[in-house]
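WARN  no MSA supplied for this record, continuing single-sequence
INFO  ligand: pyridoxal-5'-phosphate
INFO  echoing inputs
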Amino acid sequence: MTRRNLPALDWFRLVAAVLVVAIHTGPLGSFSPAADLWFTRVLARVAVPYFAMLSGYFLARGGWRGTGRLWRHTLLLYLLAVAVYLPLNIYAGNPVTWRDLIFNGTFYHLWYLPALLLALPLARALAKSGRWGVAAAAGLYLIGLGGDSYYGLASRLPGLGVLYEVSFCFWDYTRNGLFFLPLFLLLGAVFADRPLPAPRPCARLALLGLLAMTAESFALHGLKLTRHDSMYFFLPLTMWGLFGLLLAVNRGQNRAVRRTATLVYLIHPWCIVLVRVGARFFGLWDQLVENSAGHFAAVVPLSVALAFALQALAGTHNRRLPPEVRAWREIDLNALRQNTKVLRAALPDGCAMMAVVKADAYGHGAALISRTLAREGVDLFAVACLSEGIALRKGGVRGKILVLGWTDPAQAPLLRRWRLCATVADAEHGRALSAQGVPVHVHLAVDTGMHRLGIPAEETAQLAEMFALPNLRVDGVYSHLCTSDGDATADREFARRQTEKFSRTLALLQGLGLDPGLTHLQASYGVLNPGCVQGQRFDAARLGLILYGVRSDDTPVECALPLWPVLSLRARVAAVHPVRAGEGAGYGLAFTARRDTCLAVLAIGYADGLPRDYAAKGGVVLLQGRRCPVVGRVCMDQMLVDATDLPRPPQAGEIATLIGTDGGETLRAEEAAVACGTITNELLSRLGPRLGLQTRET
Ligand SMILES: *Cc1c(COP(=O)(O)O)cnc(C)c1O
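INFO  complex generated
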């Protein structure tokens, strides 16, 4: 199994941290002032905006809900850093002033932290205004430019020079939390709401931006117009391309690298001091201090080594448990994106996709799936219950969320608090919801023959009553087909009758002057068997199962869409035992070896969602790309497989595949469901939260 991992976003943090070290050591200074100018005052200027864009990107992906946490975290880090650099302030005779503490940072590299503290709430407020917010941040940036690289021009304009002069009573540079960072936070945030960019155009843009910045910088320095040189007109353009490129090629993450980058950034000025002290002590002043390249080459490894040492001391190195240590779900996000495209094309024009992400997105991880879909432009989601809806909001999902199941009317305030839309299960339920005195948005379920939830289709008066109830805002009307997955003539016929009933009810409501809002009828099988709805059109289709690239079983359907399975299920081999012919194994010794047998124990069991009698129904797993039968009774946390026929005995730690592909062999979820005695829907939705969740992009 090959899984290519390229945590580009995290690795570039480390690159950016090293570029900051370069700014403060000027590695090329001893050789060519022009080359050093380009390296440290042009190229390395991408470092700090990159940090800001990352923050903006991840905050926006979480609906900016993490802003307060990041703010507190930054404050703590800043206070710690202030303390750590206090000895150097004292040694250098630089008293710490309020002005430094609030705007400039108490040490030369620390300005970023107070700037972030100022910029975070500002950017969050601006983000609420969408494009206008970005425009406002760009305006602030332009003002900042006038106090930075373009000061020579701006200060000559009447009045403006004085304003800048006054502003410098508060801060040393306009490269701060007011003028500099908000734009980059918001540019990062813009990426959070769009589909992944293509790498090539981004790379071209980054290169073009860098060339333009080079020309800009040399011109400004040549004309001696700069007061400082952190801000360029073409810097945002360069950052847009660079960030897009890194985002496009990023696969996975590496927390250790991320932490190392932060530490290198924070501690490198101390390392500069240590290198100077060491150089004097060992008589290497010329090589390690006077020679700028030697200086840089000493400070960088020392900073990285110290960063590692600090992490080892704090015991935080790799503290997070990786998902693939025991048993896990592997989610192929590209397959999900592909399915979204295929399904959108399959739906009739004007029919939107409502992504059904109940039961933790059928075991796929609801927040992960919903956020990925949101980035593909999906903005309608459905869950089964209130708690799932709230979890989705907390996970940063911003689209419309419909609760398909019953909601306790007493919880109406929570519906409102989390902007969730409830299903009216029947007339009495609707009245009870209305009686709570809290305005709530609802969809009316119409019972067209399934007799589960819904107001009977014939009860037009009851349906109309719902529209008139105080506090209920009817945003939609829907029904559910209960035989669209069958291939018998009677099944299709029943579904057609349900469709007819539903359409008639909608027409009646419209005849009464009532607007049903969003109408929806089909679930997955209503799309796979479109004959059920006889070409009728509704505003949306509620798609669950097929979004995940599977079908309930192998019953033939009218429309075989090219869907990719999104989930693989894998587990580690925990132990391998030889068992003599005639010996038994597992609970109740339910397995008896007929021959000398190699038993592999897998670290996955019925508590993870597999049935206890998986072996009896023909359960198999893939090991070394071959099928091995499950034997004995499945335990709560383990199961046994017969690995005797493998070319070599498996080893502890080896990966077994319960659903998915290994080598040339594939075990489909539909097959596994048959061995579980059920349909894929049940098998997947039972996969336990104890399983790790790993993402992959093919
Ligand atoms: C679960 C559910 C769906 C999604 O069904 P799939 O067959 O998985 O697409 C749609 N509508 C309702 C009311 C549901 O409960």
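The mean pLDDT is 94.
INFO  checksum written, moving to next record
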